[in-house]
UniProtKB/TrEMBL annotation:
It comes from Pararhizobium capsulatum DSM 1112. Pfam families: DUF1428 (PF07237). This is Uncharacterized protein YbaA (DUF1428 family). It comes from the Bacteria. Gene3D superfamilies: 3.30.70.100.
Length: 117
């Protein structure tokens, strides 16, 4: 079964185009190194919950949108090898980009698939 990296972050609405530019480059790099898919989604129906919610999780403000993204890989081992190459790729060097979001509020992690239909 596939392995998945998932991300949730808040992007200022004014920076959405810059974020998409950066994500397009990042996605092409991940795919080049072997990721099966790279998907970016913008919140469309994510109410602010009383206790928990996507906006609460990333402390999104009224001038930000919540982004949910994920990358799929053939396996955990291939994910680790692909990510090592991605992190070393000069196209994604931190000094190359003016980060269009606050990385301290990004939530991310790796997940083993347990059901695929």
């Amino acid at each position: 079964m596939t392995y998945v990296d998932g991300f949730i972050l808040a992007v200022p609405k004014a920076n959405l185009d810059a974020y998409l530019t950066m994500a397009t480059v990042a996605g092409s790099v991940w795919k080049e190194y072997g990721a099966l898919s790279y998907v970016e989604c913008v919140a469309d129906d994510v109410p602010y919950g009383e206790l928990t919610s996507f906006p609460r999780a990333v402390m999104a403000t009224d001038d930000e949108v919540v982004i949910f993204s994920f990358i799929t890989y053939p396996s955990r081992e291939q994910r680790d090898a692909i990510n090592a190459k991605v992190m070393a790729d000069p196209r994604l060097a931190p000094d190359k980009w003016d980060m269009p979001f606050d990385g301290k509020r990004m939530i991310y992690g790796g997940f083993k698939s347990i059901l695929e239909l």
